Amino acid sequence: MDLKLKIWRQQGPDAQGKFVEYLVQNISSDASFLEMMDILNEELVAKGEEPVAFDHDCREGICGMCSLYINGRPHGPDTAITTCQLHMRKFKDGETVVIEPWRAKPFPVIKDLMVDRSAFDEIIQAGGYVSVNTGGVPDANAIPIKKENADLAMDAAACIGCGACVAACKNASAMLFVSAKVSQFALLPQGRVEANNRVENMVAKMDVLGFGNCTNTYACEAVCPKEISITNIARMNREFFVAKIS
Amino acid sequence: MAKLDSKVPEGPIAEKWTNYKAHQNLVNPANKRKVDIIVVGTGLAGGAAAASLGELGFNVKVFCIQDSPRRAHSIAAQGGINAAKNYPNDGDSVYRLFYDTVKGGDYRAREANVYRLAEVSNNIIDQCVAQGVPFAREYGGLLDNRSFGGALVSRTFYARGQTGQQLLLGAYSALSKEIKKGSVELFTRREMLDIVKIDGKARGIIVRNLVTGELERHGAHAVLLGTGGYGNVFFLSTNAMTSNGGAAWRAYKRGAFFANPSFVQIHPTCIPVHGDYQSKLTLMSESLRNDGRIWVPKKKEDAQKIQKGELRPTQIAEEDRDYYLERRYPAFGNLVPRDVASRAAKERCDAGHGVGNTGLAVYLDFKDAIERLGRNVIEARYGNLFQMYEKIVDENPYETPMMIYPAIHYTMGGTWVDYELQSTIPGLFVGGEANFSDHGANRLGASALMQGLSDGYFVLPYTMQNYLADQITVPHFSTDGPEFEQTEKEVQERIDKLFAVNGDETVDSFHKRLGHIMWDNVGMARNKEGLEKAITEIQQLRKEFWQRVKVPGEKTGMNVELEKALRVADFLEQGELMALDALTRNESSGGHFREEYQTKEGEALRDDKNFTHVAAWEYMGDDKPAKLHKEPLVYENIEVKQRNYKTA
Ligand SMILES: Cc1cc2nc3c(=O)[nH]c(=O)nc-3n(C[C@H](O)[C@H](O)[C@H](O)COP(=O)(O)OP(=O)(O)OC[C@H]3O[C@@H](n4cnc5c(N)ncnc54)[C@H](O)[C@@H]3O)c2cc1C
Ligand code: FES
Q: How far is residue A82 CA from its own chain's centroid?
């Protein structure tokens, strides 16, 4: 298939960005979206032009490194998917594809389609852990955990930290991301010990970093590649409330 | 041979590690703050080590290529992690895990290291649970286990199909805690391009800041590499795009011996190659072999019809299917080790029984398991893998059998290290996939995660202290010294040289060409003639690279093509050493299969008399051949036998 690409190009964080149009031809519908980008970049390099910068690594939907806002949707036109898993069979011959970076104040553009997501690391550093050191811990089976809770904790822990939730939200809220981590630990006895401090510190950090409020549009859940549920946000709100009154 | 002292402690194997810890040197708490440690890599090995060393009170600086430590390639591991807990009461023990690992590695691993690995495996599971890793559980609330290849017990712990992700997030959370405390300083989007030695000891690194393009100097009392494997030499592999062997290769060129470079693992269950634009291969976890049955059509005519799209696999009658692993290896069946399963798939496809439009695929079929257990059970076990498969191949594996084919997955070879995980450069430690230590010629499934975390949480925090104990009086290193100056200059020259070529062929194009040479000659089946050819071709390709490669853009600022060019330049050297090592090892062992050395039934034929050793290569200069050193392997606790997966 042949496609017209409108790609956001921006030299650096402070530079002015703009859309640039490219044509790609004879793309196989079995190719992945990023392989299509590779083909474009190979052509650009062969012509002596600078390739389009974009983040990616594992290319199997688990590292959370890839991003891209494709035709107005984080990770493009499919559900429960990351950009690296998206395949060209989801596009039509002759289509125009608009490709932009995540746009959110706490995620400044580094170059072209790459953004800086270190704000997410900072939120985790504010409390997204159980404060145990290596060694001296009890036997793994010492504390039985209800399968139901372990499964719910796993559902929440599946978050890959890609930032699609923030990019989809008109307020650039990070509630889905933060609540997934808060929920994982809130559901496990190991995490309960510090539950109150954790939720307060992580929420405070999120606010300081400039992420917006949640106004319940559910846009985040709709684009989450790991289908993290907004029930986690409800759980986090409860945890936050309990922490505040205790 | 004095250079290769493995430093294995005295005493019976079960007491070696305890004895070591009882007698090693330690650094007192107040002095730890005076000591700086550099950790390169935030995967399981690097991440766990950096966190643990920070907890102990050392000043740690940690580096990674990605934008966050949470994205290291360990995140992609799917199936599980082994431990000798024996929770299912099915006869497991530390000895059995040790035995299975040495046997699985085809008797080419160092006994004492493997025993220690098995010994600390249980602590890993305890540690991860304490961190809040949501392992799979049974209804009674206790941890669940599954089986992996090469074992007759169920000892694999897992978190759905995302075990690596959950373990890495555990290490990442421990690391984040230390970053907050200030004991660990984090440097993301940095690539280490060289090691700095002062008076023969590793004292620092040169890194390129991938955002600004600037070279930076960092000094420390000791350096730890947890930089992962070099499978991407083959271009197509299951490794992440930035996985590279560069750090270990730079260490090699500074004097760290490189061990068993030819020992690479080819994983039997990957999604087959579909086009020449393909950028990477996707693994379908080995855990699928618990419930999936592998087969090809018995009749060649059927295979041909399937290849042409005239027949569907579901139309092949039961009696016309060849479940070749169950047929050849009745005791282990579909759960034979990876090297055995991979070669058997290649053998069937080469004999004309392969499926898919290329004929280079076999079926992994869940029909029986779905009938027996129900679709929802299979979905709970492997749902995310089935979904991944469907997104890529556009076929529903609940209804049509999966197609799989072997692909490059893991590198058993790596930097040579002693029992303390120290390389031949004093002060340079190497952990995880980057070292060679525990898996011999073939790694068993679910053992890499175990090794990464064992090295990171439980081995390096001890052994590095033993080295650092007499370093407390050495002041913090200034990076203004002549050694830093000189090393940085050499890195800059390498970068300048790449831009200066200004040729007409892209980096990826060279990388693909290298990949083809490697896959065809240094892949699943090797022979003398092919290996000699590979060496000549790689030398030629390397020459061409330095005459014709095109690196666009600027030296300053972000330049992804430059990053790739630097890695491929190293791969072009490393590939040659891999071929040379394979050529020198005149036997078949584990993943290293030399066609000249096989039994009548086509099984790997070892030569224990001449090759029960680690081949450690020393860099002698760009225009001189590498020098081979041998570390003899002595088996005192295991009887060395022909591997047999036919009978239990
Ligand atoms: C798809 C897949 C599935 C797997 N499944 C399993 C499984 O189920 N069970 C199992 O036991 N094993 C599995 N493995 C193997 C296992 O995941 C790896 O061997 C292991 O995670 C490697 O960990 P590591 O810490 O050594 O390195 P990695 O996780 O590869 O980390 C390397 C780190 O080093 C950094 N780095 C590298 N070079 C540089 C440099 N020059 N400068 C700065 N930083 C650098 C990277 O940024 C990264 O942080 C799987 C592997 C793959 C590919
Ligand atoms: S590249 Fe890893 S999730 Fe897409």
A: 9
